[in-house]
Amino acid sequence: MKHILLFIIPIIIFTSCDQLVSPRRYKEEYYYVITGRLYENEAITPENAIFVGKTILADGGNIEEFVISDAQVKIIDLENEVVFPLQFIIDLTSNPINLGYFDPTGSLIPQALKSYRIEAVLVDSINYAQDTLWAEATVPKPIEIEIDTTAFTADTTLTGWPELVYDTANIDHPLTIKAEDQQTMNLYFRFFCLESWEDAIYTIEYMGNDSPEDEEEYEDPNTGFPRKIEYFNLYEPELDLQSGNYYVIDRGYKGAIIFYGRYSITVYNIDDNFFKYLYKPEGYNFGGINGGIGYFGAVSGNTVYTKVIEGN
Fold first, then answer.
1. Of 244 and 129, which is predicted with more confidence?
2. Which of 76, 234, 247, 258 is the most buried if burial means most Cβ atoms within 10 Å?
3. Domain boundary among 107, 138, 169
4. How many CB atoms lie within 10 A of CB 81?
5. C-alpha R_g of the chain
6. If 0-12 CB within 10 Å is exposed, 13-18 middle and 19+ buried, where does residue 44 land?
7. Cβ(152)–Cβ(173) under 8 Å?
8. Is the overall model pTM greater than 0.90, yes or no?
């Protein structure tokens, strides 16, 4: 496996500043923002809603102005020009909060290798002018996690999941991702512990403790860390001469497992918009948004499950 790049995912907080590249009219006031991505074979639900808003000043800005709830937002399938209007939702009872625009009909199901365009029409209440933000994204080629059934499963209905010994995970059970060809891929990994915080036990003792002292230590309300660990790499699949297939093999993922217990492990192939947003300095200027900042991306991938245990 050839690693091209390795980065830690940045946490972007949108605040107004002079250095941002922005729509001409709003250089001195604020910048429109779109953040969101399409998932292959998944509808745009309240849980993965697309955010539309604008930046606010860090010193004295009104957080209520950050959210734009009355935009006219739609997704266009560029292959057949079918239009899917989106609807705004805010659900403060969900964790995390559902906030943004989703497809109430559930009829838009993004497909691999197809391109989609988002358009958001907004009215500037200060200048009474209408502006349109837009971006285009292509859903990447599908990938497949080849399941080592001694350690992983894709079936959540099993009464007992396969067990993964933490100490030897990288050596005995590397994550094996099957690719369609040798074309370089941007892969995004998400590790999520499924235990409650009361039952979570650290794989490596932290601050003298073998388990979290409270829920916030287990799951930061803003990032999900350390319950949720995410990272991304640029990979070049290698040919397996025996099978004739191309694979990316990750033999270093153990560092993303912070707790013992049940885990979901998701691997996505991500498009250039999302990848550039993640790794470039001030990546919100490179996420494909015309007329604003942020990103509009697309991903394809799948998830496996395991139970992480201590070694003998």
1. 244
2. 258
3. 138
4. 8
5. 21
6. buried
7. yes
8. no
